[in-house]
């Protein structure tokens, strides 16, 4: 459990961790990709620029055959088994490193959630979802998670909350929500706790490996079911999180989420879809079999299908309310290049 000091003065505690504690001893985890990168530098036919150009050409032309071809990896040697194990079992170290390097600056606030997940928003926001909403007022408030969660009308659990780019905008837009966040990376949770808006009195975050119960990776981590009473959560969100978890662990993770949801409670998912630009542009040396890849920093990237996601949720007892691909065009502000993206998005309900 987080110490009272950490809850009361999260920024001070986070800075102390960084400068006196864990930070001083930290060494970046290794990946198998160093040799691959050296090879790539010598071979102009395998540059990341070329891989991006090929992927963009296929997607922009809507050439499904070329898209499928770029996803066919059987001719490639997959990442060695022992490294695959390391990326899955040791994911915490890679995510901690990710947040050490990028701090709070990597992900953008997900304001679009107001429109995408209407169930989470009050009527006045739905009537004008793009209207400005004020930042949360912060105070020195210490939160008793259980008391607050039980007393608050609507409990939102954000799984894999990172530094709060989903959680905080949702709390801003809906004053009736009480937000609970958890993430595998204690670094990310420390950064979230160091934000002024975290101390709004409606928010609590803790490190947790959501694939695991009591066998958490460190004494600092807590199982979902230890922190939240069974049947206490109204809504849960999984935003680009299942793609970071080995698919073999998806079912056990969803079972754990099902048990903390209220009957009738819902899970909202948005994640990378199969055929997304990010999948097509992966070069050699990243493929782990099927639609699973590892990024250069050692974090997993699994690309999901709508039918696979639906099946996994339904197999553990959820009812699918919706589940479909969303196609989007994102413009790179620096280069002006239009990048077609594929997400998969769904809402799943625990039967009443
Ligand atoms: C791609 S990031 C998305 C972050 C955030 N949901 C957002 O959309 O901005 C994936 C997040 O999932 C977290 N994560 C990965 N595996 C996890 C696990 N087993 N339990 C909890 N969180 C996990 C990572 O630490 C990381 O913060």
From TrEMBL:
Q: What is this protein called?
A: tRNA N(3)-methylcytidine methyltransferase
Listed A to Z, the keywords are: Methyltransferase, Transferase
Q: Which family does it belong to?
A: Belongs to the methyltransferase superfamily. METL family.
Question: SUPFAM superfamilies given for it?
Answer: S-adenosyl-L-methionine-dependent methyltransferases
By its UniProt entry, which Gene3D superfamilies does this protein fall under? Vaccinia Virus protein VP39
Q: What class of enzyme is it?
A: transferase
Q: What Pfam families does the database record attribute to this sequence?
A: Methyltransf_23
Q: What is its EC number?
A: 2.1.1.-
Q: Which InterPro entries match?
A: METTL2/6/8-like, SAM-dependent_MTases_sf
Q: What does this protein do?
A: S-adenosyl-L-methionine-dependent methyltransferase.
Q: Is Transferase among this UniProt entry's keywords?
A: yes
- Its domain of life? Eukaryota
């Amino acid at each position: 459990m987080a110490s009272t000091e950490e809850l009361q003065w999260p920024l001070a505690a986070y800075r102390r961790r960084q400068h006196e504690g864990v930070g001083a001893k930290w060494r970046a985890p290794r990946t198998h990709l160093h040799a691959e990168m050296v090879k790539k530098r010598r071979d102009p036919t395998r540059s990341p620029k070329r891989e991006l150009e090929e992927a963009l050409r296929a997607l922009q032309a809507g050439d499904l055959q070329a898209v499928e071809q770029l996803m066919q990896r059987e001719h490639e040697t997959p990442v060695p088994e022992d490294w695959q194990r390391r990326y899955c079992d040791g994911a915490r170290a890679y995510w901690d490193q990710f947040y050490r390097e990028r701090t709070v600056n990597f992900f953008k606030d997900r304001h679009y959630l107001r429109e995408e997940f209407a169930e989470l928003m009050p009527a006045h926001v739905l009537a004008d979802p793009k209207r400005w909403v004020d930042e949360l007022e912060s105070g020195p408030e210490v939160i008793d998670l259980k008391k607050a969660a039980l007393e608050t009308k609507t409990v939102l659990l954000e799984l894999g909350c990172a530094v709060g780019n989903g959680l905080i905008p949702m709390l801003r837009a809906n004053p009736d929500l009480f937000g609970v966040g958890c993430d595998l990376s204690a670094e990310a949770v420390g950064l979230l706790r160091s934000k002024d808006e975290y101390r709004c009195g409606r928010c609590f975050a803790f490190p947790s490996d959501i694939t695991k119960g009591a066998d958490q990776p460190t004494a600092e981590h807590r199982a979902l079911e230890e922190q939240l009473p069974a049947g206490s959560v109204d809504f849960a969100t999984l935003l680009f999180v299942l793609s970071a978890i080995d698919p073999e662990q998806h079912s056990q993770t969803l079972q754990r989420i099902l048990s903390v949801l209220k009957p009738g409670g819902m899970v909202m998912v948005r994640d990378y879809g199969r055929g997304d630009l990010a999948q097509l542009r992966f070069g050699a040396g990243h493929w782990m079999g099927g639609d699973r890849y590892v990024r250069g920093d050692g974090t997993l990237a699994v690309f999901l299908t709508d039918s696979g996601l639906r099946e996994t949720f339904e197999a553990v007892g959820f009812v699918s309310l919706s589940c479909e691909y969303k196609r989007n065009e994102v413009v790179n502000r620096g280069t002006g290049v239009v990048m077609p993206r594929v997400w998969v998005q769904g809402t799943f309900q625990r039967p009443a």
